[in-house]
């Protein structure tokens, strides 16, 4: 049973690391501020869930599991809130999204 927990834990840890790495590349390659914030917020959420789930499996039933769960809940509440606040502050300060990055329905054109 210990081997199965180790394998699942490593899959979760590697998956979380992959999400963080790909999200970091996405944040560097995105064309404008709003798409960068979107890439960073997705990385925060999914990477955090996977990495902490992998560490929780390694911790077993202990006080560390409860602490890791509390950290996960805190991060899942604060990371999306921080991303929203950042994007909202940029919008209120006058930074408009680029028209090229919007879907066709949002450019003022009617959909066929």
Would you tell me the overall average pLDDT? 86
Give the overall shape, derived from the CA principal axes: elongated
Report the helical percentage. Answer: over 70%
Please report which band the strand proportion falls in: under 5%, 5-15%, 15-25%, 25-35%, 35-45% or over 45%: under 5%
Largest sheet, strands/sense/barrel? none
**How many separate structural domains?**
1
Low-confidence stretches: none
What is the CA–CA distance across the termini? 56 Å
Number of helices: 3
Q: Rg, please?
A: 18 Å
How would you classify the helix and strand content by structural class? mainly alpha
Number of DSSP-assigned strands: 0
SSE string, helix = H, strand = E?
HHH
Question: What would your notes on this structure say?
Answer:
The chain is mostly helical. It has one domain (2-91). The chain has helices at residues 2-29, 33-59, 63-92. The protein starts with a helix and ends in a 20-residue tail after the last helix. The mean pLDDT is 86.
Summarize the model shown.
The protein is an all-alpha fold. 76% of the residues lie in helices and 0% in strands. The relative contact order is 0.13.
